[in-house]
Amino acid sequence: MKRQDKDTLKNFDFLARSFARMHALGQPVDIDSVTGNMNDEQQAWFRGRYEHYRKQAERARVIE
Questions:
Q1: What domains are defined for the chain?
Q2: What HEC string does 4-49 produce?
Q3: The pTM is what?
Q4: What are phi and psi of 36, to 5 degrees?
Q5: pLDDT tens, position by position, 32-54
């Protein structure tokens, strides 16, 4: 996602974090549907951020 502007990256990052939190709270998240209209580079970046935030959110739930 080298060519994307900063606002797009912030929005994608926010969405990845939001979906990861939803997942950690037990809400179903179909990540394939979420990334379905993204190109390969966007999907790879988004899924990486989603996984990072998902693990982070799950660790936080264990601590609570």
A1: 3-62 (1.20.58)
A2: CCHHHHHHHHHHHHHHHHHHHCCCCCCHHHHCCCCCHHHHHHHHHH
A3: 0.83
A4: -55, -35
A5: 999 999 999 999 999 999 999 99
